[in-house]
Amino acid sequence: MKPDAGAGSSAPLLAVQRVTLRYVSEGRTVTATENVSFDIRQGDRLVLLGPSGCGKSSLLKAIGGYLWPESGSIRLRGTPVRAPGPDRMMVFQEFDQLLPWKTVLGNVVFALESSGRWHGQAARARAAQAIASVKLGDFGDAYPHMLSGGMKQRVAIARGMAMEPEILLMDEPFAALDALTRVAMQDELLQLCNETRFTVVFVTHSIQEAIRIGSRILLLSPHPGRVKGEVTSDGKDRVHPSGQRLSEIIHESLFATAPGPQEAV
Ligand SMILES: Nc1ncnc2c1ncn2[C@@H]1O[C@H](COP(=O)(O)OP(=O)(O)OP(=O)(O)O)[C@@H](O)[C@H]1O
């Protein structure tokens, strides 16, 4: 992560402007998002929150460069996103993101060497450091099938971070974990974010997870996804002066027909 990115400057790291995403297949058109706009700054933990089918994953794929907007634009440091790149690493929900024939260390080294930015001993040292940072320092020689689902997710996060992306894109990365592991992983991610100040876009449909993980929470309407509002979070489901908890404000906004909070509360 480049330390100067966005910090102290007025230009956003990522600018999503009036993005409409559509899928067309066999004569059928599905609108995933409509006119969605938001900015991301260095160090933001932006959560995309909304009901199933509102286009959260599609937005993440578009930021990743895997899906092109039908209209609108996505710019990273002012440059249009047109393809995937090592500046935007994705972590998915699935546990099978790792190469099964490579060790934990080998998986991370492979990604680093494939990027062409690190080789040999430099790649190995960097990979070992990233693996240690997700508390898997003793598992560098283990193969993916020897790890739990949570451990595999940690390797995927370590691999993503080791690549030093501008933004880490996380698509419900903890959804398939049991409740206790999920909370532990959320804590770990937050600790890593505090240590490294990396920028995250995190997709979830859990209000509680959004409040814990996000510094900003973008609220999307049901299908097709439009921005209903945005709230800020300090990690706690705090009570607002209105007497409502943040989770209640979010819930009402997501499911109300009226526009949600446009100002950060
Ligand atoms: N490859 C695809 N082809 C056609 N339609 C798709 C495709 N992927 C997604 N869609 C449709 O686009 C809409 C948004 O899907 P998307 O997966 O982005 O939503 P989501 O908010 O991430 O949902 P969930 O929380 O259930 O994962 C849905 O109506 C979905 O059916």
Automatic annotation (TrEMBL):
MF GO annotations: ATP binding; ATP hydrolysis activity
Protein name, as recorded: ABC transporter related
Domain ABC transporter, residue spans: 16-247
InterPro entries for the chain: AAA+_ATPase (IPR003593), ABC_transporter-like_ATP-bd (IPR003439), ABC_transporter-like_CS (IPR017871), ABC_transporter_ATP-bind (IPR050166), P-loop_NTPase (IPR027417)
Entry superkingdom: Bacteria
UniProtKB keywords: ATP-binding, Cell membrane, Membrane, Nucleotide-binding, Transport
Signal peptide: none
The family this protein is said to belong to: Belongs to the ABC transporter superfamily.
Annotated transmembrane regions: none
